[in-house]
Amino acid sequence: MKRKVVIHLGLHKTGSSLLQKKIFPKIKHYEYLSRPYTQLNHNWNKLQFANDSIYDPNAMKKEVEQFKGCNLLISDEALGGVQLFLNNSTLSMTLGRLKHLFDTDQVEVIVFLRGQLSLMRSYHNQWVKSSPYGINELNDLILVPKESYSYEDQHRNRKKDKNMLYFNMTDFNFNPSSFCYTGLVAECKKHFDKTHTFFYEDIYFDPDYLAKQLTQIFGEKVDSADFNSKVNAALNRVALKKRIVSNRINLLTSNKWLGYLFKFIYLTCYRGDPSGIEEGKLNQLTKIFTEDNRKLVDEFGLDRLLHHPEQYFIS
């Protein structure tokens, strides 16, 4: 019987923790490779983040040879790229390296997408919750680039602005293009013909459909009841606001009592919306994502997203 390798590559904040804790461990006839192994193991880590001068393909080949002959289920959301700061810059490199590790006729890829604004808010929530540097409101994280700086601008000594950068690698941010899925799906299909695209919203609105599709991929039953679990819950608006303030104060002072005083004053005066997006920027994002999501339907036939028109700005 031919070996099968199923690679789940995220995206981040599209139900990966639920899949990794409640669904994938129950798949019996596959060797299951996931976090922390796929992050803390040096070969796997370098496959995802190191350039060619550091990455060792022979060492990586040896790493996976210990599973020779086994069906493999590999799950790590970073395989699909990292939107915050890295802006998915590692995706093509990672897919190319995975392609050289396995016979492509053995591989099936699973990728989950999520309504873009919902994904941005969840990404921001997780960053604030888990990072001491989670000090920004969502609106400040979203970098919509201004008009590009031209050769003529240099000679005219046009004033420089960091928001002219298409990707700003000097700060925590994400570019909306990192949440445009047409290029991502095309890149996956370029490397692996058998790419299955699913939508995060179906985990909650149609788990029976999702369980049926995964059952067909793995060749063994996936129970839709397992999707009912809640994993890695988000902070509510009040808790998110408090965590942002706490992170900001902790970066300013390590004095506990001074910190309490600053937090009290800050929370009393704080009137911002931690997960809000200013109207002008929101209109820009809506236009960008509407156009891209239509391409998902027209070019790849992913009309499943039409079941969730509000999340994908499409009808």
List the helices and strands and how they pair.
Layout: E1 5-8, H1 16-23, E2 31-33, H2 37-40, H3 42-49, H4 57-65, E3 72-75, H5 91-101, E4 107-113, H6 116-130, H7 138-141, H8 151-155, H9 181-191, E5 195-199, H10 201-205, H11 207-218, H12 237-252, H13 256-269, H14 279-300, H15 309-312
Helix pairs in contact: 5-9, 12-13
Tags for this entry?
single chain, 315 residues, alpha/beta, Rossmann fold, five-stranded parallel β-sheet, 15 helices, 5 strands
Would you write up a description of this structure?
It is globular and about 65 Å long. The chain has a 5-stranded parallel β-sheet with strand order 2-3-1-4-5, sandwiched between helices. The longest helix has 22 residues, at 279-300. The model has no long low-confidence stretch (mean pLDDT 92). The chain has 15 helices and 5 strands. It is an alpha/beta fold and 315 residues long. Helix content is 47%, strand content 7%. The chain has a domain at 5-119 and 174-233 and 280-312: Rossmann fold, CATH 3.40.50.
Q: In whole angstroms, how far apart are the ends? A: 44 Å
- At the first level of CATH, the class of the domain at 5-119 and 174-233 and 280-312 is Alpha Beta
Number of strands: 5
CATH topology call of the domain at 5-119 and 174-233 and 280-312: Rossmann fold
Strand content: 5-15%
Instruction: Please identify which CATH superfamily of the domain at 5-119 and 174-233 and 280-312 we are dealing with.
Output: P-loop containing nucleotide triphosphate hydrolases
Structural class: alpha/beta
Q: Given the C-alpha coordinates, what overall shape results?
A: globular
Largest sheet: 5 strands, parallel
Kindly report the spatial arrangement of strands forming the biggest sheet: 2-3-1-4-5
CATH architectural category of the domain at 5-119 and 174-233 and 280-312: 3-Layer(aba) Sandwich
